[in-house]
Amino acid sequence: MNRETLRTSILDQVREFAAAQEAPRPFLAGQTAVPPAGRMLDAEAYVALVDAALDGWLTTGRFNDEFERLIAQRIGVKRALTTSSGSSANLLALSALTSPMLGERALQPGDEVITAAAGFPTTINPIVQNGLMPVFVDSELATYNPTVEAIAAAIGPQTRAIMLAHALGNPFRAGELRALADRHGLWLVEDCCDAFGSTLHGRSVGTFGHLGTLSFYPAHHITTGEGGAVFTDDPLLARIVESFRDWGRDCYCAPGRDNTCGKRFDWQLGDLPCGYDHKYTYSHAGYNLKITDMQAALGVAQMARLDDFIAARRANFLHLRERLRDCEEFLVLPEATAGSDPSWFGFLLTLRENAPCSRVDLLRYLDQQKVGTRLLFAGNVTRQPYMKGRSFRVSGELNVANIITERSFWIGVYPGLSNEMLDYAADRIREFLGVGF
Length: 437
Hints:
By secondary structure, the protein is α/β, with parallel strands linked by helices. The chain has two domains: 251 residues, Aspartate Aminotransferase, domain 2, CATH 3.40.640; 129 residues, Aspartate Aminotransferase, domain 1 (Alpha-Beta Complex), CATH 3.90.1150. 36% of the residues lie in helices and 13% in strands. It is built from 13 helices and 14 strands. An eight-stranded mixed sheet has the order 1-9-8-5-4-2-3-13, sandwiched between helices. Strands 7-6-11 form a three-stranded antiparallel sheet, with no helix packed on it. A three-stranded antiparallel sheet has the order 10-12-14.
């Protein structure tokens, strides 16, 4: 058998294996776990992984080119650049704004970046890691995003950027924020790691800011295992992100290619001698944050299912909202931002002050009943151990961030959950609250 015949035979066997591996299993109430999130793999995902492995090309290659193209096309931007995680994407996006290539607009140590106090740490950490000053603002209940008014009030003479996540897939008022940013000459970075597919006034989140980011961790809307992406419409920002991602090099040749610029030995940059190999000339203090082509191949397969995944998340969200509607005496139910159509990451709930139980008691009970829960990540990050002794500024009060820290949690809406599983989770919450039982 020649190589192509062998390859076809191998991939056919992979399909058979995947069909058995991913065969649906019956739901047994009280025995089957109802997880908050999970990866969704089918036979084509397994085939894609093995197909890329059989190429023997271990860094980014043909599958990554296609994956980046599909991401950019889906969002509606000129460039998407894959990276090793959503956290890496956030680091690259903010680090790009420190590039000397941006001239007077480059962020400098000590400059302020406004962000939400309640959220995931790696929306905030790049600010600290780049020697910048985080300015924390509060969020509002139900949408769990900061208001435009709170962000406007936080702008000071040292403020140079805004970096915010769309909370659990629910868009913040990005159009108004971009207008605010433009009026004050600020950068806007949209962390869309939990919001792939969310739209605001019919437009994809991430297209309002100067840069947007995605995560492809297994819990997210699509997965490459570990992985993420940065995307932008700005060619200069794309070039800078690519440089930071690829060791900080000035060269933009793809892996395995040389002399894309046609003058590899004709450059004179920095204090280097004229003709110093452009492949080894560095314009930034960068990293190596690329993905493998196997990860990209999985991403290509997942992109074919993205619309179905988004539809399932929206349907599951609506199902839970209806099932928990009669709990509003004790629970704040999540609400979509006006004009948005979220691609929900989770179903976020907050216990009201009059609730008949504490959050920890409810979560312990749900855990015993095999209903998985998660908090809104770090909660009020200023209360986290790693923030002790760090410099930051708080604008206004963080009352809602503290409520989120003490009384909020979320359950899953991911496509692997059936209505039977959603009903079971909702009934266990209602039961513990004494609603309808």
